Amino acid sequence: MSLHPALEALIALLLVVGGAFALVGSFGLAKLSDFYKRIHGPTKATTLGVGGVLIASILWFTATTGVFSAHELMITLFLFLSAPVSAHLLLKAALRLERERTGARDPGTP
Amino acid sequence: MIAWALDATIAMLALALALCFYRLARGPSVADRVLALDTLYIDALALLVVAGVRLGTAVYFEAALLIGMLGFVGTVALALFILRGDIIE
């Protein structure tokens, strides 16, 4: 197995960038002080991190086997569709929990 | 170079998993724990993909695909349970 050095460098860069984004997202999840701050980290950084890792996997399998490896695109597509939906639902759930705890009215209604 | 990058990525993803477990254990609210589980399955999916590249096999890809689909269903079910108290209306 001998890959082109430029392709190898690109795959390595994508892998490290993806891992770093996932780490930053999880670090934000652990470090930030409030749920509404915490939800920023995973929703943006983690999907970007998984995207980088999956592109690296596509390039690597395509380069080593010689056949275009498209099935990683399924995970990418599904994750990019599902991540905003789950984040929206979690945010609604957190708002409801806080409203129940404090007895406050729905924010946004006058 | 690519072996070094794979090992570094696996280390970073493992650290990310540890941080997710910290938030899962710490809480404080239910929504925080569900968010930690959501991040946990996405990081585990990335770790499985990297492990597949590291070991040179496509077997782990099916596991990653299953985790990706069922993890989303689990997150939506938990969020709807917090929101409404029941899942299927």
- Helix and strand content put the structural class of chain B at mainly alpha
SS-based class of chain A: mainly alpha
CATH class of chain B: Mainly Alpha
How many domains would you count in the coordinates of chain A? 1
Total tally of structural domains of chain B: 1
Low-confidence stretches of chain B: none
Q: What's the gyration radius of chain A in Å?
A: 19 Å
Q: Determine the CATH topology of chain B.
A: Helix Hairpins
**Percent helix range of chain A:** over 70%
- Report mean pLDDT of chain A, rounded to a whole number: 84
Largest sheet of chain B: none
Query: What percentage of the residues of chain A does DSSP assign to strands (E)?
Result: under 5%
Written as H for each helix and E for each strand, in order along the chain, the element string of chain A is HHHH
Q: What does the radius of gyration of chain B come to?
A: 15 Å
Main sheet specs of chain A: none
Low-confidence stretches of chain A: none
Order of helices and strands of chain B: HHH
Number of helices of chain A: 4
Largest interface: A-B, 52 and 49 residues
C-alpha end-to-end distance of chain B: 53 Å
Helical proportion of chain B, percent range: over 70%
